[in-house]
Specification:
Layout lengths: L1 E7 L3 H4 L4 H13 E7 L9 E2 L4 E5 L8 H15 L5 E4 L4 H13 L3 E5 L7 H6 L1 H17 L2 E4 L2 H9 L7 E3 L7 H4 L4 H11 L6 E6 L8 H14 L3 E6 L9 H8 L5 E3 L8 H7 L2 E4 L8 H8 L4 E4 L4 H4 L12 E4 L4 H13 L1 H18 L2 H18 L4
Parallel strand pairs: 1-2, 1-5, 2-4, 5-6, 6-7, 7-8, 9-10, 9-12, 10-11, 12-13, 13-14
Antiparallel strand pairs: 3-4
């Protein structure tokens, strides 16, 4: 049996017992044997949570986010001293959780697997978001990355950066978070889709451009709104559907939609439970993304599994998930355009809306690839296999 100690910033693990995150970690734990997660929470989350026979969650109940690292280290060390020996420590990021992991690595004498779920090192766009904070985090990340015994990234770019600075290829791996599943590929009953379209106020002839996610700054949703204005000018039947908590955006997206003259053709419906998302993918015609960078966007795996063609800009992470029709038609799943070019992205979306045969071909090829490469069940096994691999390699000397 493998006992893994995970340091996480995901509050939902402790506070949302029915969430997809909790279910996924229960599955990891069952495969490994035992998983203990120290999860950031504000006060009031309670004590030890025995989420399953194999999954234990330790809320930090931190009075302030800045106290998380200290609280996490204390909770983890106290728990480890009185329970089953720990074989591996893994951290959610190479920053604050990574620092906790480095400290625990030395205290417990076990290997440390550091995760990187985005694109940080050498990313000027990320640095520009919060220059002082992110430059400080870069220094912390370099220290943590250098002390890690195993390094997991979700894209090839970050792994190459690690190897180029002297990281061992054998002690690193690229493993995106696979979320494509039969749930997204399944045919949604016509009655259910018709009811959803009616609830959303979609006319039978409306053609839907979909976006799903958290509209934080690097997602560049305002850029998508500007793009859609160009789409709408050429195709008045187009609708833009935004799914997610728009309150997380640094911009007033409703005001921007009004300023662009697209408010009446733009739907912002708020967050949707993950298990309900397949119906929204099923009613769409095209999935569009305008992020400045990504780790590897799992929404694209889900959209592809649902048979949607993808349209995006050639940016880090996105360019690894979208295989461009103009470059490799035999296995393409969408269209890529130069970064920042809203005219080109609008033209790509229009091309997909106007060409049903192309939509169908890209959707079919994308679904086949997504279900093969990013299958949700296969991912569970692959991630736990990385834990075993890291334990077998042991600590670096």
């Amino acid at each position: 049996m493998l006992h893994v100690l995970m340091i996480s910033l995901d509050t939902a693990l402790a506070t949302q017992p029915h969430s997809a995150t909790r279910r996924r970690h229960c599955a990891y734990a069952e495969r490994a044997g035992s998983l203990t997660v120290v999860a950031y929470t504000p006060p009031g989350a309670g004590g030890v949570i025995q989420a399953s026979p194999h999954l234990t969650i330790l809320p930090t109940n931190s009075r302030h986010p800045l106290l998380f690292a200290l609280d996490a280290a204390r909770r983890a060390e106290t728990f480890a001293a009185s329970h089953v020996p720990v074989h591996l420590i893994t951290t959610q990021d190479p920053f604050v959780t990574g620092l906790v992991g480095v400290w625990l690595r030395d205290r417990l004498g076990v290997p440390l697997l550091v995760q990187n779920h985005s694109y940080y090192f050498g990313n000027r766009a990320w640095l520009a978001e919060r220059p002082l904070r992110n430059r400080a985090l870069t220094q912390i990340g370099r220290l943590v990355r250098g002390r890690a015994d195993f390094y997991r990234t979700v894209n090839r770019r970050e792994r190459a950066t690690y190897v180029n600075i002297g990281g061992e290829l054998a002690r690193s791996a690229v493993l995106p978070l696979g979320t494509a599943s039969a749930q997204f590929a399944a045919t949604i009953p016509w009655e259910q889709l018709a009811a959803l379209r009616a609830d959303l106020g979609l006319a039978p002839d409306d053609r839907v451009v979909l976006w799903v996610g958290y509209p934080v700054a690097f997602k560049r949703v305002p850029l998508l709104l500007r793009t859609f204005r160009r789409v709408l000018a050429a195709e008045p039947d187009a609708r833009l559907l935004l799914v997610g908590d728009m309150a997380q955006s640094p911009d007033d997206l409703a005001a921007l939609a009004r300023a662009e003259g697209i408010a009446e053709r733009t739907l912002m419906i708020g967050p949707v439970a993950h298990e309900d998302l397949p119906a929204y993918y099923a009613l769409a015609d095209v999935y569009a993304i305008t992020s400045a960078y990504e780790g590897l966007p799992r929404v694209l795996f889900e959209a592809a599994a649902a048979g949607l063609p993808l349209a995006g800009m050639r940016t880090p992470g996105v360019d690894e998930a979208i295989r461009d029709w103009d470059v490799s038609p035999g296995d393409a799943n969408g269209l890529l355009v130069p970064d920042g070019d809203t005219d080109a992205l609008a033209a790509a979306i229009l091309k997909l809306l106007r060409d049903p045969a192309l939509r169908q071909r890209l959707g079919a090829q994308g679904r086949t690839h997504a279900l093969a490469a990013y299958d949700a069940d296969a991912y569970l096994d692959a991630w736990v296999d990385l834990w075993r691999r890291a334990v077998a390699l042991g600590r670096r000397t």
